[in-house]
Each structure stands twice: as structure tokens, then as C-alpha cells.
Write a structure and sequence with these properties.
149 residues, alpha+beta, 3-stranded antiparallel beta sheet, two-stranded antiparallel ribbon, 6 helices, 14% strand, globular, disordered C terminus
């Protein structure tokens, strides 16, 4: 991970990255060249949404939403890795994402969305007498419960 943001002065920073290693799909370059990153940072830095310039509000909202969608897709993919590769529990993932271990169902929803975006079906086929993401199918009776991990 070679993306670097260096504060150059009190109110300036420089972003550097290796296009091949750090931005192979060109997301960073597109966000910068299109002005989306600049607009999203304007929205992030403003003290109140009402303070954003009326003439640019639509453009700033569109840019911020586009960046948010890109980051959400990346977050979902990372959640799949945290669960499947690293073996983290739902509570651990919820703490990472929301700073709240009780938001396990939200973490699980992010995981399932990540599976869908990669073409995998969350939970796989439903089988009798097995646990499927907190739902137990027991001889045709559906039993819902808390966190299964």
C-alpha cells in the first residue's frame, strides 16, 4: 500500500501513489481528475451542509455519493476477507466497521452484500437441520437466534 498523503503546509497536502501498484483500475486517478475527490473533501470539511455553495451543491452531492459507493464496494469486499480469510467474528467485524460490537447483524449484512457483489450467494443452499446465518432449520421449523459465531 503505497498511497501517501503528506501534509505540506498548514492547509496543504500532496497525494502520491504508484499507478500500477496502488491504482491498477484507475479509481484514484479518476476521482482526482474528475474533481470528485475535491468535491467530496469539500463536503467532509464543511461545518454544515447548509454552508456548501448552492450553485455547486448538486455537483458536490453527486461526487460525494460516487466516492461513497466506490468505498462501500471496497468495504464489502474487505468484510468478506475479514470473515472468510481472517476468521473474525461478527462482533469483531462490527467493532471495526461501526465501533460497536453489538451491530453484528449490520456486519453480516455488509458481508452478504460483499458476497453478492462478487457473484456468490450468501449462505448457499438451505439444508434441513443446519445453521444458516443465525437461522436454524429444524425439521421444517424455523428458529431464529442471535449471533452464531
Amino acid at each position: 500500500m503505497g498511497v501517501d498523503i503528506t501534509k505540506t503546509t498548514g492547509s496543504s497536502a500532496a497525494i502520491t501513489w504508484n499507478p500500477t501498484a496502488d491504482d491498477a483500475r484507475g479509481y484514484l486517478a479518476q476521482a482526482i481528475e474528475s474533481g470528485r475527490l475535491e468535491n467530496a473533501l469539500s463536503a467532509l470539511g464543511t461545518p454544515a451542509v447548509e454552508d456548501l455553495p448552492a450553485a455547486q451543491l448538486r455537483q458536490i452531492a453527486q461526487a460525494t455519493s460516487a466516492i461513497q459507493r466506490d468505498l462501500e464496494r471496497r468495504t464489502r469486499a474487505m468484510v468478506v476477507q475479514l470473515k472468510d480469510r481472517d476468521g473474525l467474528s461478527w462482533a469483531e467485524i462490527a467493532t471495526i466497521l461501526y465501533d460497536d460490537p453489538s451491530k453484528r447483524s449490520s456486519a453480516r449484512a455488509a458481508y452478504e452484500a460483499g458476497l453478492r457483489q462478487t457473484g456468490h450467494q450468501p449462505g448457499g443452499p438451505i439444508q434441513a437441520d443446519t445453521i444458516h446465518g443465525g437461522i436454524v432449520f429444524d425439521n421444517g421449523v424455523v428458529i431464529t437466534g442471535g449471533d452464531t459465531d
